[in-house]
Amino acid sequence: MPSTLSVANAPSDAAIANRLRAILAALDRSEIAVAVQAGVVTLDGDIADPSVSAEVVGIAERIEGVVAVRNQLAALDDLSQQIDPAFQRFRARADQFLARLPLFFLAAVIFMAIVALGVLLSRRQFWDRLAPNAFIAGIYRQAFRAACVIAGIVVALDLLGAVALLGTILGAAGIVGLAIGFAVRDTVENFVSSIMLSLRQPFRPNDLVEIEGDLGRVIRLTSRATILLSLDGNHIRIPNASVFKGRIVNYSQNPARRFTFDIGIDPDADLEATRLLAQGALRAMPFVLDKPEELVWIENVNESGAILRVTGWIDQETTGFFSARGDAIRLVKDAIEAAGVSIPDTTYRIRLEGTKGIPAVSEPPSRPKTEAKPPPAEIADQPASQSEEQALIPLVAAERQGGDDLLEPDAPRE
Q1: Distance separating the N- and C-terminal Cα atoms of the chain
Q2: Closest CA to 4 of 14, 19, 21, 26
Q3: What is the dihedral sign for C-alpha 270, 274, 277, 283?
Q4: Distance of alpha carbon 231 from alpha carbon 157, whole angstroms
Q5: Containing H/E element for 35?
Q6: 94: how many CB neighbours lie within 10 A of its CB?
Q7: What is the pLDDT of residues 367-393, one digit of tens each?
Q8: Which one, of 56, 88, 90, lies nearest residue 71 by Cα?
Q9: How far is CA 109 from CA 94, 96, 164, 166, in A?
């Protein structure tokens, strides 16, 4: 219920009229005529500002004894009289602004001083010692500068007595930030992934890695992408979000690396002797490590012959993986063939029986089992295979000159 204004005497029509006229005179609204009959107040007159009508009606309704209010106030048709109230309000606000101008100037000075202090402190070197790498140090600096800007705004608004405005600004900024976050969520995800990768360091510069099927040496990690140099000398840029969520194979994590290949032999050969022959040929190769030990086993037997699975280990820091595997295939094949064991081809023989006009092809006679001979002595004289991946290292070093990088060569591996 709206509150009421008490009347000194009984709520007669004259008392109500006199009370309302006194209030309007105090508000400089003497041009409004007031008449009261049976508790019904009639307001009459011309006013320049239409908002005054609602204000006067509200006052009249709050006087004790008023039953109803009849509003007959009309707006003036003269344009100059209608503009005059707005001009008066503008002039009052201008006077108020000029009176508070020194306070505005002081608030601006304090704001700029806090911001300048934040920029100065953000350039100090202790941020580099506080952060694990330069990228995180840059984020710390930007966050500190943003905090100083917010602190300067809060202090300035508090000095001006407009702290309530800060809540409105922060609320609007939150809504706008939420909308922008949905619009650039891929960019934000990529940025967060860059932070996590710079902290975890899953690889180092020059590491040979495979990321989601892309193989190459790591050039650098930027705030947006991981850059690789492929074995063909091409640049590969992979978004950090894909790197962080993807499958990473780091071939440089362990110097020892195993190569594997299959080789078929004649099914009539002595399988165990041939297996030992292949294993001995591997052992005689200078680039094959003694530990872990090389292994050869019978993987399968099919219609074309037996399949041997041949495995060996190399030091990939001194020996190229692909060239070592190629040399091993060549030398094992030569050793098997030199021992008199044939390597079958994939040609199929078709025998037709009972077909009119076509003579039946007799099955060739079975061949006697061949005994495997020791591997030739010249295998041990084979030079170590050169590392084709090592040729990329100078190229990567040249690419890393002058570029921003979030990787640190001495960072601990994940």
Answers
A1: 71
A2: 19
A3: negative
A4: 60
A5: strand 33-37
A6: 10
A7: 454 454 555 555 555 555 556 666 777
A8: 56
A9: 22, 20, 21, 18
